[in-house]
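Reminder to self: tokens first, then the designed residues, so the page reads top to bottom the way the pipeline ran.
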């Protein structure tokens, strides 16, 4: 049995969960998320917690047990607290700004790159170089942050580009000079 999967998921006061077979809907102060879980698990609400259990001892059922518990726990935490991912833009002339809801990034190309956020995602920029992606869905926040980083990934020689906050870039030595 999965060590992660057997832990019950505690529900905060302001979070409401609706279970309909394998479809789960979670409502809270930060929004509403819904997801259909794969076959092989069962989900039940016991008092102020949710319990995910495998339906059989088959390998696929045991594999999905911990995954489904984590997915539901991420949904509960997302609608109660929310998720955010921070990025740093490094380099002369590279900057970002928010126009309406759209994020406009100038990262050394001949044109600015515009990113339109999907529903439930918000962008904010501090000091033209620090971008914060926030929302209730952990998967969506991570995907949008990865799209922004993919505009100009950090290069190993001078470290210029867009990187996650706290990310360590392995640096390379440049060419050695002539003697």
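Designed residues (179 positions):
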């Amino acid at each position: 049995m999965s060590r992660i999967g057997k832990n019950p998921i505690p529900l905060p006061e302001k979070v409401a969960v609706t279970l309909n077979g394998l479809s789960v809907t979670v409502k809270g102060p930060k929004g509403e998320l819904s997801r259909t879980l794969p076959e092989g698990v069962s989900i039940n609400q016991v008092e102020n917690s949710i319990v995910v259990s495998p339906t059989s001892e088959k390998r696929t059922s045991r594999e999905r047990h911990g995954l489904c518990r984590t997915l539901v726990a991420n949904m509960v935490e997302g609608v109660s607290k929310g998720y955010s991912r921070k990025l740093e833009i490094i380099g002369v002339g590279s900057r970002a700004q928010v126009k309406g809801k759209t994020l406009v990034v100038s990262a050394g190309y001949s044109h600015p790159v515009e990113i339109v956020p999907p529903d439930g995602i918000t962008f904010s920029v501090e000091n033209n170089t620090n971008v914060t992606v926030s929302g209730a869905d952990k998967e969506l926040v991570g995907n949008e942050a990865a799209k922004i980083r993919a505009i100009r990934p950090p290069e190993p020689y001078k470290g210029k580009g867009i990187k996650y906050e706290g990310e360590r870039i392995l640096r390379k030595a440049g060419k050695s000079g002539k003697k």
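Helices lie at 59-80, 138-151.
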